[in-house]
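Project standup — Tuesday

K.O.: blocked on the structure for the chain from last sprint. Re-posting the sequence here as requested.
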Amino acid sequence: MDDQNQAVSQAANSGQPEPLHNPTSPTKLPWPYGWVITMSILFGFPASFLIVWQNLKRIGREDVAKKFFIVGGLIVLALGIITVILPVRTGSQSGSLLLSAAFPIWFYVKYFKDWQIKNPKVAKFSWSIVGWALLGLFVFVTIITISILIVSGGK
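H.V.: unblocked you, prediction finished:
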């Protein structure tokens, strides 16, 4: 039996409440879901990607966060390029708005809902989510700029 399980069983036997999270999990609580989806829609799909990635780490799912960073990053890069290449009338901007909501919805259904049942305490609004959203906006502008330069041939 590892140290964590032993500590939990000792706490259960002694009548003490169980710890909210294990000592190896991050000490920062995840951002509330309402703020996650709001910032994701306001700042675009790269911001959505970064915010969900950080929240996965905050709920202690480092393994999923690493995989999500690679797969989600490739999706964000591909959609940024597609948004530049396709004309506006094709609806590529509408698709990017839908993707902005898709990452947080996937996160909520797959991971956050279960985590929240076990850990009812969720952080209130934190300015750090705005920082990650702004970083996502910067990433989006960078992808668009590089894509435009590549498509236009650097002219």
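K.O.: great, moving the ticket to review. Residues 22-152 form one domain. The chain is about 75% helix and 0% strand.
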